[in-house]
Specification:
With about 180 residues, this protein is of the alpha/beta class. The protein has 8 helices and 7 strands. It has one domain: Rossmann fold (3-Layer(aba) Sandwich). The termini are close together. About 40% of the residues are buried.
Length: about 180
Amino acid sequence: MPTPIRSICVFCGAAPGSKDSYVRHAHELGQLLADRGITLVYGGGGIGMMGAVADGALSRGGRITGVITRQLVDRELAHPAVGDMRVVETMHERKMLMVGLADAFIALPGGYGTFDEFFEAVCWAQLEIHRKPIGLLNTMGFYNGLFSFLEHAEGEGFLRLPLEKAVTLAETPSRLLDALDPPR
């Protein structure tokens, strides 16, 4: 029986995206994590998708660990209500600490930073640096094109870790959490 997930690192950015459903799903994910007693580990920001997931967890009394660089704190982008805020010097330190604190990973719709964090987690799984589950929240089909491309890369022989073992794709926060950490 797999070990229960106690913390999930959510990769997401400071932009809210162009559709209300992106922010709504981020907020809902934060609420669900809190409801299930799962600690949210995230990039520490208070705006966009980062702010939404943290606000969702906070609205239900959830535990949160933010990990943010000093540069972003100096730009006043840290979430003011997150009590456990770890401040590091570099983005590399930030990613290393977030990965170390988490039992699983979820990437929300996002941009370059989110993609970088997601792909590093998947690459490390392929290299067996970790064996933690990884999920993509596919709100409104956001990741359909990426998933199709990854299937193509797998078919062409470039992915040693089979996609079905590497990444779980789901359309809603509750389905994704149930797939990563099935109810007992």
